[in-house]
Amino acid sequence: MSNEESTSGADDVLLNTGVDPDIGKPSGEELGISLDSELLKNIPVTISIEVGRTSLKIRDLMRLTQGSVVELDRLAGEPLDLLVNDTLVAQGEIVLVNDRYGMRLTQVVPKSERLKSL
């Protein structure tokens, strides 16, 4: 194998795609990659609603019993956070829908802000 052929994996990708690293990275379309939107729609994500947070020492955690109260860092009435795979996506308030809890979104985090946290 010649020196030209013994390049790293990253260089191989650049050589095979014809991408000049000084120009920038190509989009998926430029590489001939197409994403099936139906496939993306079927990827599971974890959604959670965060009421608040706190830090405890293990000694205090071990003292918790039924009826104990854990104070959180949020005030009553403050918006709750909607997290998707641990990324803040929106804020809102708790609502009751047919004997189940739900969340009414009051503010959605702009896409540009969500991408910064990835």
The fraction of residues assigned to DSSP E strands is 15-25%
What is the mean pLDDT?
79
CATH C-level label of the largest domain: Mainly Beta
Reported by name, the CATH topology of the largest domain is Surface presentation of antigens (SPOA)
Determine Rg (CA atoms, Å). Answer: 24 Å
CATH superfamily of the largest domain: SpoA-like
Q: What shape does the CA trace take?
A: elongated
Q: Distance between the terminal alpha carbons, to the nearest Å?
A: 39 Å
Number of helices: 4
Poorly predicted parts: 1-22
Category by helix and strand content: alpha+beta
Give the SSE order as H and E letters: HHEHEEEH
CATH architecture of the largest domain: Roll
Which strands sit side by side, in order, in the main sheet? 1-2-3-4
Helical proportion, percent range: 10-25%
* Major beta sheet summary: 4 strands, antiparallel
Estimate nothing, just give the exact number of structural domains.
Answer: 2
Total beta strand runs = 4
What does this structure look like?
- By secondary structure, the chain is an alpha+beta fold.
- The chain has 2 domains: 1-43, no CATH class; 44-118, SpoA-like (Surface presentation of antigens (SPOA), Roll).
- It is built from 4 helices and 4 strands, in the order ααβαβββα.
- It has helices at 9-17, 37-41, 58-62, 111-116; strands spanning 47-50, 80-84, 87-97, 100-108.
- The chain has a 4-stranded antiparallel β-sheet with strand order 1-2-3-4, with no helix packed on it.
- The longest helix is centred in the first third of the chain and has 9 residues, at 9-17.
- It is elongated.
- 1% of the residues are buried.
